[in-house]
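ligand=zinc ion
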Amino acid sequence: MSSHYLGIDVGNTKLAFGMAKADGMSFCEKRVVPTEPHLGVEQALQKILDNTKDLLATVPDVQGIGIAFGGFVDASRTIGLASPNFPGLKNVALVDMIQELAPGVPVRMDNDANVAGIGEAVYGKARGYHMAIYLTVSTGIGGAVLVDGKPLAGSQGLAGEFGHMIVKPGGPRCTCGSQGCLESIASGTSIARIARERGMQTSTRIHSPFSGVEEINARIVFEAADRGDRLAKDVVEEVAYYLGIGLANVISAFDPDIVILGGGVMNSAELLLPPAIRVVEKHLGARGAQVPPIEASSIHDDVALWGAMALARFAVGEE
Ligand SMILES: [Zn+2]
């Protein structure tokens, strides 16, 4: 009989919980609840604890728990230090809080980009490769360098921060304080900002959990580009160019077997990836280097949750 693992994905928009068996490729139980950061940290933490407690009660044989944290995690991987889009979520000893609900069960946490990378390496397209790069293009841009399925940490645990590679010196101001980072051009937030700056307007209004009503988001830009809107097409073309530069740099640095891209923006991969890959081909082709497969994740909606599951499995293996 195979035992169960619990994965928790703490994101700025949603909190996801998944329970699966070690050999399972589908969740036997999955829940997604909105984070609602505007209601404060306490309520979000309460939701995490309540749902975890609930799930632990339904399945008695949970062997390990993995947490994907949408923000910076301390070097010991137990404290959520800060979450850029959830300012109140700071210095939260999440591992200890979850541990209290499941005494004796190993609990592991890492930042969501690393965890998603692990998910790709264990359950997704990066499976079986020696050197894989995972890049998440979402509200921000993060990533992981996976060597035999494990993320490279770096000296401060910050390896794979591809979002903050400079791709356009002197370019737009980034959330990190620098300028011209990949994230300042190609993240979902930046794509929307560039479109707004260029004067894109839309009658479509969608509800955003962060800011109430927001006129333009990346999805709307891609939809407009797909319909042939000139301005939106130009924005997508420019974003693809800089994404291509970023990918070319990463590939030059790591010579990976495969590059996987996930995150919400990759729902529009068919518009963004082909022109970005052409930039990579041009750059690497100039010196006769081979271009590795560059593909959108096939599990990107749940990749962090699957990664959390894998982290839980690794934890059991370590103990
Ligand atoms: Zn930056």
